[in-house]
Design a protein that fits this description.
263 residues; Metallo-beta-lactamase, Chain A; seven-stranded mixed sheet; 7 helices; globular
């Protein structure tokens, strides 16, 4: 039976590993073994990233940008990324229309085959398929006049790689019972979960979500960016221990990369 293992990127040469880089808040770069580069909720220039501007300018190739909903801290630097790369966007039908019509995002970066809704599976390429999941959260887009427009459902994402591994990015969400359905169809190896509280789950509720998903690894996100997001990774770790979680919680550092491979 294959087992997913974690290796810190500075340890050994694992060029064919699945790589995850955290830029702070909910922003991640995921790189598949075959070279697919995916940004999720790419607010790279967030207040906690000391070199966000430089990193944004030096991203290099980006194949896809996954946007969970239309709030500014999730749209983040998407438009800048589209302007400097050939990336295409994966998001909901309602949000894609708003971004194109209200904010002048380039329509050709939202091909019909990459726009979907909750429960839909979207094939990105031969390496990656994405399942759009429910997220319990609001979803609005602010137009250039400062007016809010409802953008349809907020999303989470399950990335399934051809090598057999999977990553669940919860998006901004509260705990919800249907999370139990996600691992029924495929085991989640790595879970990226919000823990900040106030607008999303706090550490205790996120620990319950983790116990429903049962990933091998769980990485906390969406905390500490602002004072209101006062959940901490140490509180999350304690809550997981009390719940009896048997996997590994990894408190990532901003701009650091982890590598995962199958033994």
């Amino acid at each position: 039976m294959k087992k997913l293992l974690l290796v810190f990127w500075i340890a050994i040469n694992t060029s064919h590993a699945l790589k995850i880089t955290w830029y702070g808040h909910s922003a991640f770069l995921v790189e598949g073994e075959q070279g697919t580069r995916i940004l999720i909720d790419p607010w790279i220039q967030n207040p906690k990233n000391p070199i966000g501007e430089r990193l944004l300018k030096s991203l290099g190739k980006v194949d896809f940008v996954l946007v969970s909903h239309g709030h500014g801290d999730n749209l983040g630097d998407t438009l800048s990324i589209l302007n400097q790369t050939e990336a295409k966007v994966v998001t909901s039908y309602g949000l894609s229309n708003h971004l194109i019509r209200l904010l002048d995002y380039p329509a050709d970066r939202f091909p019909a085959e990459l726009v979907g809704d909750v429960g839909g599976k979207i094939r990105l390429n031969s390496e990656v398929e994405v399942l759009l999941t429910k997220a319990v959260h609001s979803n609005e887009v602010m137009d250039k006049q400062g007016h809010l427009h409802h953008g349809g459902p907020a999303l989470g994402f399950v990335l399934n790689f051809s090598e057999g591994r999977s990553i669940y990015h919860t998006g901004d969400t509260d705990l919800f019972l249907d999370m139990k359905l996600i691992p029924i169809f495929k085991k989640v190896d790595i879970m990226l979960t919000c823990i900040g509280g106030h607008f999303t789950m706090d550490p205790q509720r996120a620990s319950v979500a983790t116990m429903m998903i049962k990933p091998s690894f769980v990485i906390p996100m969406h905390f500490g960016t602002y004072p209101l997001l006062d959940g901490t990774s140490s509180e999350f770790k304690t809550a997981l221990e009390e719940a009896g979680y048997e996997g590994e919680m990894i408190p990532m550092k901003i701009n650091k990369t982890l590598e995962f491979f199958v033994q």
